[in-house]
Amino acid sequence: MERKTNRIGAGEIAFLFAALAIPIALAELGARVWVVWKWPAEKVHQLTHTTPTRGRFTGHPQLPYALTPGYTSPRRSHNGHGFRGPELGESPPSGAIRIALLGASTVYGARVDDENTSARNLERTLAPRLAPHTLEVVNAGVPGWTTAETVLNLEARVLPLSPDAVVILDGRNEVFPQVFRGYRDDYRHFRDPGFDFSGSHAGHKRVFRLSHLALLLATAGEGRFGFRMEHENPIYATIRWKNQPRPAEAVENSTLPGRTGGLRRNLERIVEIAHSRDVLVALATMPFRAEAFASGVLPRDPDLLPALDALVARNNAVVREVAAQRGALLVDAAPELSTPALLADDCHFNDEGERAFAALVAAALEAPLRAREQAR
Question: Which SS3 state, helix, strand or coil, does residue 67 take?
């Protein structure tokens, strides 16, 4: 008697293959339709190609990242030098006074349109007072930076533009390196200077170009299949996340002595560099509302907020001390501008706040700039 064996024929194999392939193909088609419908083309290109540019941010040989030259969006535009605002020449026009504002997202104007930044408001406020001289104000703020980057920005990108004065507004972002584990004055415990975000997820992106279904699956949750979205955003890609503290650690670290050493050293260096080039320096204190704190670097923990408030206050005290000791002008913005009426969140000005800060800067700079021009 012959024994029957169960064998899968070629037709059955083809049927099984079709049964698997058809739903996968339909899912891929649906993923492509979804991505085109929901995602901006810029985002799709970023997640399917390795490039030194990430929207408004780009790589820089001396800095972790900088602003993308020539970038435009409905609310923001960058000039050819990679600064927010209108185009400018390598040197000020004859008879013009040039001022540069340096710092992070508060200087950049994260919550306002191009024409409502502090830089543009300062031009409108101070220019009539300095007539017959014309006035140019360079917005050299870049979101996510600390004073460690501001020092490099001043040396590499701002001083070559021959400013007559520079205004520094930093202090809020300093709290991140100040509470991270393994504190160092050079902030290398917080920022990895060797990380190259331009080549991040190169293998993933080759797959994503072939399959938008894989793209959706990998980006649906943090860390899926080894893909981490923060490595695509230069602000977060260069952070040493292994040193990120838990809220209780951050509170404890905020009270440790010596944590303002890096800020003090960087501010002193800024004043020294600027004065060596005969450039006026104004240091500004940082307006801050801890109750409105929001950041991708630290969680918004109720126990952490009072510690951050105290730490920003300590940083502002350092700003005042350095200004007094090193002969810099002081724009003491924190006491007057730390209100919900002027801040859109914990540290970014709304339209009225941008005007108010510009007015304080104008008041601090008017007389010294007049005296400077008369002495020439």
Answer: strand
